[in-house]
Amino acid sequence: MRILIADDDLQILRALRILLTARGYEVSIARTGAEALSEAVEHHPDLVMLDLGMPELNGIDVIEGLRGWSQVPILVVSGRTDSIDKVGALDAGADDYVTKPFAADELLARIRALTRRQPAASDEPVVRFGDIAVDLAAHQVTRSTPAGTETVRLTPTEWAILDVLVRNPRRLVTRQSLLTEVWGPQYTNDTGYLRLYLAQLRKKLEPEPSHPRYLLTEAGMGYRFSPDGD
Questions:
Q1: Hey, how many other C-beta atoms are within 10 angstroms of the C-beta on 88?
Q2: 132-146 confidence digits (pLDDT tens)
Q3: Across the chain, which distance is largest between two alpha carbons, in Å?
Q4: By Cβ atoms counted within 10 A, which residue in 10, 28, 55, 114 is the most buried?
Q5: What's the rounded Cα separation, in Å, for the pair 178 and 191?
Q6: Which pLDDT score is estimated for 161?
């Protein structure tokens, strides 16, 4: 599997190249945003890792440029810790966000989660709620509008979370079980990520994201998918 790393810090590039190459990944690098887009067009990586603060084009520009033509998983690796930066990157189309300095095991787990592909049975159902249809076999979400049907683009991580919830309608899914299912058992305390991703899902799927009807929070416990909008 090929991973493109985009960062203007030579030390970070060197460390990541050594880490990932030792794990069997094929690595290409870019030191500017423009180089990152060129490398992506030329080599079609299986995953892109990028910093937000790069010359020529910043990380948000690169994410938006990639999302114009590609659904490649994008993992932001940045020293910016403000939630505004995280939400901005996720809104632009990034799939996950890791803060520098990072633990190697965590980074590798995030990569595995983003590149994990589980085949779905062809007879799996389409789950409908409101004007949304979730096709579990095709891994596709669509919305019915007066003009017709439109596709709702979800990142791989957003899909993984939604998939768990819609397969357990009306049941409480604890934060710990959701984190374990999506990221692995060593990340059961990363509840901040869940809040960010649920907020993103609600923006995309709920009629009123600030007053969700379908993707509900059970305070202090977890989340519940209510297909009837109760």
A1: 18
A2: 999 987 889 999 999
A3: 52
A4: 114
A5: 10
A6: 92
